[in-house]
């Protein structure tokens, strides 16, 4: 081979290595800086070694560079694989973030649309959505247009939510989603939207929102709902045949604090007789499963010994005692603490028995169940003296506050009451409470009795 051929072959090799480097730099730009640094380091080592007459083997380093240059272009599939892996890892996060931005932008658009519609219909100048909905709006036939406009906007909003399917778990930065949904329910009440399916859909979205970091709950802004909002939601829940209590129990971490207002136990503990009666008339469960689990002994592998009704009584006394410990309406007993219920709490407790078929709980039955539970747990090597003592104190509170019931004979309820309970149970199974009571063609006195208005 002559010199020209050798030169040509060397040029091809040099060009090929240069081409390989360019390919590597194109495929993996981040590698370029590393390769240049290694080349500079190798040249510096060789220069120092030659200048000082030191034997320094740079062959291995140069060979590594050569192999790196020669092999990486043929392993671009591997580089593409790494890129694909990183893309897959961050793709879902990227799209989640993109959805959040998109939803927030759309919520802002919906807010402006609703504000414009409300301002136009009510002639409220310069007020935002939150300011507009605070105004009491009395709608007549001519003003129904605002309700129709708002309903159309909200239907589109729900459709967008169904398409995007945002994550119900919110971060601190995304709490605005919950706050907006909770505010929309207030808008529905203000403009008197009567589409129960739409209201229930908004309720589900609102209740679904939660945060994994409970420390962020303190920063959540809860809307201040007007007085009639409770009955408004209650009517739509009943009309839409939606089990609100059951749904809330499945989403116990919900950010929607207002859901507690639909708990009979919660309303009774605060002495809200009107709300207790309203919930009972609509067939709400007095002592749902999640309440029973919360008030049980807490060991899932051991069956509950205490009857559900007795457990309900103790839980009710505990709640009332807790509420009274933070109020000044009750008169505490110095040696025992707050063991006296208020008159409104007593009224609520007696209202609850109108909706129960069980015989009244006596003090003796409570004490027997409490002791039986204690010794049954002891047989399983579980000793709960504090729970036993606490329950005995609550039983004493029950006897003190409801002496006529607690010390009465353990007799079954009268036949008239059991008939009322049976009829209401059948109506409740068909989601016909309370409207079904007034469709039976009964005399007014029986309607009132069946609707729990009299005893």
UniProtKB/TrEMBL annotation:
InterPro entries: SOCS_box (IPR001496), SOCS_box-like_dom_sf (IPR036036). GO terms for biological process: intracellular signal transduction. Residues 407-450 form the SOCS box domain. It holds the Pfam family SOCS_box. This is SOCS box domain-containing protein.
């Amino acid at each position: 081979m002559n010199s020209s051929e050798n030169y040509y072959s060397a040029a091809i090799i040099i060009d090929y290595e240069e081409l390989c480097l360019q390919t590597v730099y194109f495929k993996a730009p981040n590698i370029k800086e590393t390769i240049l640094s290694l080349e500079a380091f190798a040249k510096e080592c060789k220069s120092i070694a030659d200048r000082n007459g030191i034997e320094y083997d740079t062959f291995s380093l140069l060979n590594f560079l050569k192999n790196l240059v020669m092999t990486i272009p043929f392993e671009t599939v591997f580089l593409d694989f790494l890129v694909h892996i990183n893309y897959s890892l961050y793709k879902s996060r990227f799209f989640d973030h993109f959805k959040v931005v998109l939803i927030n932008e759309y919520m802002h658009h919906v807010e402006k649309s609703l504000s414009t519609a409300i301002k136009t219909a009510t002639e409220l100048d310069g007020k935002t959505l939150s300011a507009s909905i605070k105004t009491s709006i009395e709608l007549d036939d001519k003003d129904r247009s605002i309700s129709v406009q708002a309903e159309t906007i909200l239907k589109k909003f729900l459709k967008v939510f169904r398409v995007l399917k945002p994550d119900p778990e919110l971060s601190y930065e995304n709490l605005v989603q919950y706050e907006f949904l909770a505010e929309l329910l207030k808008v529905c009440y203000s403009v008197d939207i009567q589409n129960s399916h739409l209201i229930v859909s908004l309720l589900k979205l609102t209740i679904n929102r939660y945060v994994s970091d409970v420390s962020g709950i303190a920063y959540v802004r809860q809307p201040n709902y007007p007085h009639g909002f409770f009955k408004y939601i209650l009517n739509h829940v009943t009309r839409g045949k939606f089990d609100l209590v059951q749904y809330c129990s499945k989403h116990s971490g919900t950010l929607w604090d207002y859901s507690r207002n639909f708990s009979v136990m919660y309303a009774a503990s605060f002495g809200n007789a009107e709300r207790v009666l309203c919930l009972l008339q609509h067939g709400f469960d007095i002592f749902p499963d999640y309440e029973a689990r919360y008030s049980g002994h807490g060991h899932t592998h051991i069956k509950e010994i205490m009857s559900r009704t007795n457990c309900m009584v103790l839980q009710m006394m505990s709640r009332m005692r807790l509420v009274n410990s933070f109020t000044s309406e009750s008169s505490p007993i110095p040696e025992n603490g707050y063991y006296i219920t208020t008159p409104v709490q007593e009224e609520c407790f007696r209202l609850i028995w109108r909706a129960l078929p069980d015989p009244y709980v006596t003090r003796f039955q409570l004490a027997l169940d409490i002791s039986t539970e204690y010794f049954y747990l002891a047989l399983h090597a579980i000793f709960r003296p504090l729970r036993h003592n606490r329950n005995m104190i609550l039983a004493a509170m029950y006897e003190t506050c409801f002496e006529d019931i607690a010390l009465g004979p353990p007799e079954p309820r009268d036949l008239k009451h059991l008939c009322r309970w049976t009829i209401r149970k059948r109506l409740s199974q068909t989601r016909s409470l309370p409207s079904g009571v007034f469709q039976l063609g009964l005399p007014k006195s029986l309607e009132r009795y069946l609707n729990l208005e009299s005893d």
